[in-house]
Amino acid sequence: MPQPHRRRRFTGRDPTERDRAATPLELLYDLTIVVAFGTAADQLAEYVSEGRAATGIVGFVLAAFAVSWAWLNYSWFASAYDTDDWYFRLATMVQMIGVIVLSLGLAQMFASLEHGHSLDIGVMVGGYVVMRIGLVALWAQVARQDPERAPAARSYIVTVSLAQVGWVALAVVGPSVGVAVGVFVVLTGFELLGPYLAERKAPTPWNPSHIVERYGLLVIITLGEVIIGTVAALNALVHGEAGWSVDAGLLVFAGVGLTLGCWWMYFSVPWVEPVVRHRQRGFMFGPFVFGYGHLVIFAALAAIGAGLNVAAISLEHEAEIGAPATVLSVAIPIAIYVGMFYALYSLLMHQRNRFHIGLLAGTAAVLVLAVVLAAVGVSVAVCLVVMVLAPATTVVGYEIIGHRHITEALERL
Q: Which end of the chain is more exposed for a tag (fewer CB within 10 A), N or C?
């Protein structure tokens, strides 16, 4: 029977709760993250295609961290304390508003990196502060209603609030771009340290299977950026002078192949098993590695979509970079994604073997081959098809041999 969403106490959910799944509200919140990733990827593609890759990369890293970190904090809190009452729903809405405001400030931030004497992050920080106000309001309820974990809640409130003071000061003072980026790194380190300090005081009751599902869902959502990049590239080709052609067919295959390959790679590993085992040992390193490592995973996947957007701009003959640089704009984020995938696996499974080194070498060879082909005049569409073999290398390896390595690694944990 439907129940009214009256106020419930924030006393924590059962961390061993079976069949705990993502809620419709969590999925609704994720839609705002898609918008933010899409905006950041569009900016990255624009700057790279115009030959200003350094500006685009720095801006994208700043944006991707801000968006992913806000999502991460919300998701872990919801895993531990989702009451689904009207208070939690409204606090989620506040955080969604913050994500949208942050997205609106990304273009100004990118532009200030290129042309300004100071970093223009006023709107971006404003949105970020709104998100954190919603989060602090939730932790305040935990501090009052869950005495056992009140020390952790108070620690979260202090670290999150102090970080916001730092971000606001950075936006108001407006130092030079170089100084601002340095301060950004320091504040980022402080943000990353906050959950570690809080969880050491009193671990919150987050649910391992729920957390792993939430990360997997955001991986899928972020892969949507790759599909969007594929559509953009195909649209540029089909509605250009060439029309429907062999290259158009190759682009469809390449975009969908890269999406499927990256997805298949990620879900080849039963991530929930090592996260559960680390939690049972009371060992926080594993969950933190999983949580923080995905900041790179999400950014790399969004950047692959941006690279395909660069390919679209190149196919419209509006890019100021050559074919090799265009292919690199896709190859580099693929390399980062694959590298982080294996790093996470090795750290969580406590396993390093020659098999993985071979797969990494094969992946690197494929990416280098694609860039070399572009340098000798092979079309960008063909080079993108070659890059499909990069994630496919891992997929085939895991389907033939790797599944046995995973089983052995889980048994050793």
A: N
**How far is the C-alpha of 2 from the C-alpha of 5, rounded, in Å?**
9
Give the separation between CA 406 and CA 389, rounded to whole angstroms: 22
Among candidate residues 169, 201, 233, the one where a domain is terminated: 201
- Are residues 245 and 155 both part of a single domain? no
At 303-346, the pLDDT tens digits run: 999 999 898 888 777 888 999 999 999 999 999 999 999 999 88
Count of the separate structural domains present in the chain: 2
Per the structure, the complete domain to which residue 397 belongs is given by 208-412
Cα gap 393→200, rounded to integer Å:
40
Residues 171 and 299 in one domain: no
User: How many residues in the chain?
Assistant: 413
Listed residues 141, 171, 201: the one ending a domain: 201
| 278 in any annotated domain | yes
Reading the block at residue 335, the tokens are 């390399």
Are the CB atoms for 138 and 10 separated by under 8 Å? yes
Structure tokens given for 325: 């640089």
pLDDT tens for residues 93-150? Answer: 999 999 999 999 999 999 998 876 788 999 999 999 999 999 999 999 999 999 999 9
